[in-house]
Design brief:
10 helices; about 200 residues; globular; mainly alpha
């Protein structure tokens, strides 16, 4: 019994250390992003952002840099904030928002949350990135969303989707969850375009 408790404490110490290191790494990344946003001009490239943030994952570097102040103003709409960035960065943010929300809580969550503002930009972003694996799924879900919006403009209203529409969105969720790695195509898109400007 005592041995188990000692082991448990060691595992707990290791877990605490890992969590602590992750928190410190996150704080460092946020600080780097904030410093870069304050001290860079609008000609900075995606590759330069990746380098300055010490992040070789282009998707992650873009998301880290986009969502911090002064880049993102909470007083503005999602679309207004997004408009300042290059089309490449916009595409990454739109698709990343879509995939993360669907992975977290399904299509209904994507449309309900502020990311739902990107619904009318989603199909073009998917086309430009070449994410053919999610094109049919997102188009089907968007048809449901825009159909529901003809009845009610408030996408956050209770009962926005009918039961039948919820069933279709759930089908879309299940199709999405069966996909192999759609993030890989997005990573390749960033890598191919990393020498382009971050801002417009």
């Amino acid at each position: 019994m005592c041995l188990f408790k000692k082991k448990k404490k060691k595992v707990s110490d290791v877990t605490d250390r890992i969590i602590s290191e992750a928190k410190e790494a996150f704080k460092k990344r946020v600080q780097l992003a904030e410093d870069l946003a304050k001290n860079s001009d609008t000609n900075i490239t995606i590759a330069e952002v990746m380098e300055k943030l010490q992040n070789s994952d282009g998707r992650d570097a873009i998301i880290s840099f986009v969502w911090i102040k002064p880049n993102w103003d909470s007083a503005k709409s999602e679309k207004e904030n997004l408009a300042q960035f290059s089309r490449i960065v916009q595409n990454v943010v739109i698709i990343e928002s879509y995939m993360d929300e669907v992975n977290n809580g399904g299509h209904e969550q994507f449309y309900f949350n502020s990311s739902g503002e990107f619904a009318d930009l989603l199909e073009q972003a998917i086309q430009e990135v070449g994410l053919t694996v999610i094109k049919k799924i997102s188009a089907k879900a968007n048809r449901v969303f825009f159909g529901a919006r003809t009845r009610n403009e408030d996408r956050q209203a209770e009962g926005f989707f009918s039961d039948a529409e919820c069933d279709i969105l759930e089908e879309c969720d299940n199709e999405f969850y069966k996909l192999s790695d759609p993030y890989k195509t997005l990573e390749e898109y960033v890598e191919k375009n990393k020498n382009n400007r971050f801002y417009k």
